[in-house]
Inverse folding.
């Protein structure tokens, strides 16, 4: 499988984090719209648990990459709150095994904000007098103007990019109908072979939130994240999928001197009467790397 980068340029703040599971859901709904004849076949390959048609990363700010969790953090008087990113040159040095000291560390790249809106009176269908509500949003720091989504696939790149182009027309995530999550695609996909092959690789770093599968490597360092995902819009009567414990980008694992695979993790079955075959995306986008030192 080969890796490509798709650059997205946000035009407005967003309310849904650009994580791989949310991106997968958005791509699937657009796939059903653009390629309805192949949707069941595509989703069936994910359900089989063998080789997925494609793997998605979380969106990274610009050229920055998540800091591998085994890397040494520069000394600072302030505690850096995750997510923590490093410059691409430092990241490349770390995954090649040339260094385990991170440089150019950045945090707070995603800035929080709040949008205040007038509530709608359901009886009148117009603005409710004096009733306001807030929506938590995010936007990129002024030093960064784009997001990078990495796509790994053998033969589905064209379809995935077409789905992102369809998503470009309506926006991404929560409250997209009211202007949040607007973006534009900033150029064609860029090949990223440097994320596929690292000489002597004996470990990998996750470029996405994921749920490990039975048999996945366990010798590593990681950070956990609990998510409370929902189904899209009014697709089902009960939109809540429950709580899911995931590992965060930057998590690193040794592969017992075996060449890292192009994907790890698992797809999670979340059936509902309206959607008995529903899945939640929990695959890992692994970046091969060299990790020296003794195994734990």
């Amino acid at each position: 499988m080969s890796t490509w980068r798709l650059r997205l340029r946000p035009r407005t703040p967003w309310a849904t984090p650009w994580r791989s599971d949310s991106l997968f859901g958005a791509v699937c709904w657009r796939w059903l719209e653009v390629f309805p004849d192949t949707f069941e076949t595509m989703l069936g390959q994910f359900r089989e648990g063998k080789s997925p048609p494609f793997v998605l990363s979380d969106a990274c700010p610009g050229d920055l990459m998540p800091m591998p969790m085994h890397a040494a953090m520069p000394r600072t008087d302030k505690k850096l709150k995750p997510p923590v990113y490093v410059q691409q040159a430092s990241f490349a040095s770390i995954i090649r095994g040339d260094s385990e000291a991170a440089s150019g560390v950045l945090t707070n790249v995603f800035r929080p904000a709040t949008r205040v809106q007038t509530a709608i009176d359901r009886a009148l269908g117009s603005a409710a007098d004096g009733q306001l509500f807030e929506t938590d949003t995010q936007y990129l720091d002024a030093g960064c103007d784009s997001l990078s989504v990495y796509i790994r696939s053998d033969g589905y790149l064209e379809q995935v990019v077409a789905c992102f182009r369809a998503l470009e027309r309506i926006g991404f995530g929560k409250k997209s109908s009211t202007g949040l999550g607007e973006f534009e695609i900033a150029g064609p996909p860029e090949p990223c072979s440097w994320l596929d092959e690292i000489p002597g690789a004996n470990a990998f770093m996750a470029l996405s939130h994921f749920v490990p599968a039975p048999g996945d490597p366990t010798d590593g360092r990681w950070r956990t994240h609990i998510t409370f995902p929902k189904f899209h819009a009014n697709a089902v009567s009960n939109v809540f999928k429950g709580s899911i414990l995931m590992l965060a980008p930057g998590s690193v694992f040794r592969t017992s001197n075996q060449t890292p695979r192009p994907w790890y993790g698992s797809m999670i079955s979340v059936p509902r009467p309206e959607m008995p075959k529903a899945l939640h995306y929990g695959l890992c986008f692994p970046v091969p790397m060299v990790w020296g030192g003794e195994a734990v």
Remarks:
- The radius of gyration is 20 Å.
- Residues 119 and 132 are 5 Å apart (CA to CA).
- Residues 2-289 form one domain.
- DSSP finds four helices and 20 strands in the chain.
